[in-house]
Write a structure and sequence with these properties.
The complex is a heterodimer of chains A (about 300) and B (about 280).
Chain A (H helix, E strand, L loop, with lengths): L3 E12 L2 E12 L3 E5 L6 H8 L7 E6 L2 E2 L4 H5 L2 E4 L11 H10 L7 H10 L15 H13 L5 E5 L7 H18 L2 E6 L2 H7 L2 E6 L2 E7 H6 L3 E6 L2 H14 L4 E5 L3 E6 L4 H10 L6 E4 L2 H11 L1
Parallel strand pairs in A: 3-8, 3-9, 6-7, 7-8
Antiparallel strand pairs in A: 1-2, 1-4, 4-5, 9-10, 11-13, 11-14, 12-13
Helix pairs in contact in A: 4-5
Chain B lengths: L1 H15 L3 H31 L15 H12 L3 H9 L4 H6 L1 H6 L5 H35 L4 E5 L2 E5 L5 H26 L6 H19 L30 H28 L5
Antiparallel strand pairs in B: 1-2
The chains are: A alpha/beta (about 300), B mainly alpha (about 280).
């Protein structure tokens, strides 16, 4: 039996002459951290907006929690928390008042202590009386997360949650998402054009390009399909010796020489241990053997194909 | 229940938005100026108006009393109040769209009809407060400063004198009709607000429509005769009918019907449009 929290079939949307989405299919399961990957304007946000009934699709079906969004919109949205694009609040109201307003119409109004606890959870304790107009982007993002989580939703939808954050803010946001998954067992959908982010935190993903879903599935399984690119760092002598080993023992491998001491080799994952052993047995000093960012190559290969 | 919560939210937003107090402050300031002017030099104005009657009529008592002052205030200000109403109600949807909060609201488990309905209700309550405030300032403060007395109203048919004990209920009726007329403005501006993603557009559009309809209504050109009775601006001054003798109930009823029709059309158009609106900002 399918454990799908979100099921989208044949979703299409056109804005005038522009085909924003073309027969998108995807399925998000309970407990997933599901990544929407794609370039700017690929259709990630439009898909999310359709999922939250902000945009009416021209065709296709959207089911959340096994119910049709068209016929059960309110019941579904009471179980969803979302942050679409940038978090926008009433600038003339305080952080507390903003959360109070949104919580009142979220299907499960929160008490004052619950709001204060949530502000503390996102690191805004002591700022509850401050007007949102004076908040930095990072603080608004945190308040947006608080607004998203306040009614304890089962599904959390985050549209580019780290955009505009400083490095520490990005790390905090990433940790927060992982905590939501591990501590609260939430299902999370997040869109990003930051490949590293998706690779680090998502277990499943879809790649959307020009309104179409190119691939969908488990991140590790999708990346398994690809050859690995590894970079070996040695010495100048070691580099020359490694080239000889490759020519003798792995004549079919593609490689390229980098600088005076490194080589970049493309190979199947199961060949890596034997390559490693061959280098060590030949007495080549290996200072580093690292996989190049895989998702980045996977993504670029896919969208440029 | 969620509709009531949403209405409560809307009222809180209106109450905490500085712009909402512009209307109340403007009315207070304008009424203050009118009261001061009438208190300082009101009698010369009254003498100017009554000069033509002085050879045939003898006026006893205080002509410039609280009731007349309230009538003058209402007459002078009711034309300007639509702007003050539209300033707040025209912003209820488009202002949220411009701020981005409409997107946040629309992802909550409240139907778009309920969301919009709560905005119409909140806009109506704000309009009512504006009218009540005007009533308090014009009638109560006017009577407190100038004292009670018979109301003398000059209209197109001549001079109407209304006894002091017959005045207050007429004011109550006049303010109710004035509120109903201003509610048309509130509903129109909220309706226009559904079509815009910036805050100024619906306010300016509302005023432009009022101006256009008023010009059509006052232009004495036969080509406009068939549509003139159906323009809401034609009925905006229906409150004045409460100060005629005998009272033209048919005319008042007709005005209320035309304005009701406008309310229904504005709300229906807004509902359909908002329900279909793609929230892309």
């Amino acid at each position: 039996m399918s454990n799908a929290i979100v099921s989208i079939r044949q979703l299409s949307k056109r804005f005038g002459p522009f085909q924003a989405l073309k027969e998108i299919n995807l399925q998000v399961e309970q407990g997933d951290i599901y990544g929407f990957l794609g370039q700017n304007g690929a259709g990630k946000s439009t898909t999310m907006r359709c999922m939250l009934s902000l945009i009416r699709p021209d065709a296709g079906e959207i089911e959340l929690f096994g119910q049709s969004l068209t016929t059960n919109r309110e019941a579904i949205l009471s179980r969803v928390g979302c942050l679409i694009e940038k978090p926008d609040f009433y600038k003339y109201l305080s952080a507390f008042r903003n959360l109070e307003l949104f919580s009142r119409i979220s299907g499960k109004p929160s008490s004052r202590p619950e709001i204060m606890d949530m502000l503390e959870f996102v690191g805004l304790a002591g700022r509850e009386k401050d007007l949102v107009g004076g908040f930095s982007h990072g603080m608004r993002q945190r308040l947006g997360i608080a607004q998203t989580l306040l009614h304890d939703p089962d599904l959390i939808v985050l549209d580019e949650p780290t955009t505009g954050l400083d490095p520490q803010g990005i790390i905090d946001m990433r940790n927060l998402i992982l905590r939501l998954k591990t501590e609260k067992n939430k299902t999370i959908i997040l869109s990003s054009h930051n490949l590293h982010e998706v690779e680090l935190i998502c277990n499943r993903m879809v790649i959307i390009h020009k309104g179409e879903s190119l691939v969908e599935g488990r991140v590790d399984a999708l990346l398994q399909e690809e050859d690995q690119i590894i970079r070996i760092q040695s010495t100048a002598t070691g580099q020359a010796q490694a080239i000889q080993v490759l020519a003798a023992q792995f004549p079919n491998l593609n490689y390229r020489v980098l600088g005076l001491d490194s080589i970049e080799i493309t190979l199947a994952k199961d060949l890596i241990p034997s390559l490693n052993a061959a280098l060590v047995q030949s007495g080549i000093p290996v200072f580093a053997m690292e996989a190049k960012r895989k998702l980045e190559d996977y993504f670029i290969n896919l969208v440029s194909a | 229940m969620i509709f009531l919560y949403s209405t409560y939210n809307e009222l809180i937003k209106i109450a905490l938005k500085p712009r909402s107090y512009l209307g109340l402050a403007a009315i207070t300031g304008l009424v203050g100026i009118i009261l001061f002017a009438l208190h300082a030099d009101g009698m010369s104005m009254i003498s100017f108006v009554t000069a033509s009657f002085e050879q045939t009529l003898r006026f006893e008592g205080e002509v410039l009393n609280g009731n007349l002052v309230a009538f003058i205030i209402l007459q002078m200000l009711i034309v300007h109040i639509p702007l003050l109403v539209a300033l707040v109600t025209g912003d209820l949807i488009s202002g949220e769209a411009a701020m981005g909060t409409l997107r946040m609201l629309a992802t909550k488990p409240i139907s778009r009809r309920q969301l919009l309905g709560s905005k119409f209700l909140a806009g109506g309550i704000y309009t009512l407060l504006i009218v009540i405030w005007l009533g308090i300032l014009a009638v109560l403060v006017g009577r407190w400063i100038f004292g009670p007395g018979d109301l003398m109203v000059l209209n197109s048919d001549g001079l109407v004198i209304i006894q002091e004990n017959d005045v207050l209920w007429r004011y109550a009726g006049a303010f109710c009709v004035a509120f109903f007329a201003l509610l048309t403005i509130s509903n129109l501006s909220i309706c226009l607000s559904c079509f815009s993603d910036n805050s100024i557009g619906p306010i300016v559009s509302t005023m432009a429509i009022i101006l256009l309809f008023t010009i059509i209504g006052t232009l004495d050109v036969p080509v406009f005769d068939p549509i003139r009775p159906f323009l809401f601006t034609t009925h905006m001054a229906a409150w004045r009918s409460f100060f005629e003798d005998p009272m033209p109930w048919d005319s008042i009823r007709n005005s209320l019907w035309v304005m009701t029709l406008h309310h229904v059309v504005f709300i229906a158009v807004a509902m359909i449009s908002f329900n279909r609106k793609d929230i892309t900002v």
